[in-house]
Amino acid sequence: MATRSRSPRRAYWLGRVVRRAWQGYERVERRVIGRLAAKGWPVGGARALLWIAKLGVLAILLYAAVWMAFVLILVVACLWMVAHADLEQDDPQPKWRDGLLGFGLYHPDGSRIDPHDPDEEV
What we know:
Blueprint: H1 10-38, H2 43-83, E1 95-99, E2 102-106
Antiparallel strand pairs: 1-2
Helix pairs in contact: 1-2
C-alpha cells in the first residue's frame, strides 16, 4: 500500500490559515471581554457590546457593497448604451420613408433617390 508523499493541497492550507485567523480573533475577543470585566462591566454586557460592534461593522460593509453594486450596474448600463447608440455618421445613409413624392428612398437632405414616375401611381 502506497502512502501519499505529496504536500497538503491548497484547500487544506487555506483551511489552516482560516482556522488560525479565527482562533486569533477569538483570543482577542476574550481579552477585550476580560479587560471590560476588569473595569466593572458585566460579562454579558461586554459580549453584547462586542455583538453590537460586529453588527455595526456588518452594516457598514453591506452599505458599501450596495453602493458598489449600484455603481457597477450604472457603469454596465452606460457601457451598454454607448455600445448600442445610433451614432451619427459622417456620411448619413438614405432611408425609406414617406416624403413629398410618396413613399420611397430619400436622402437625408430630402431629395428622393430611387427612380420615381408619378404616372405609374394608381
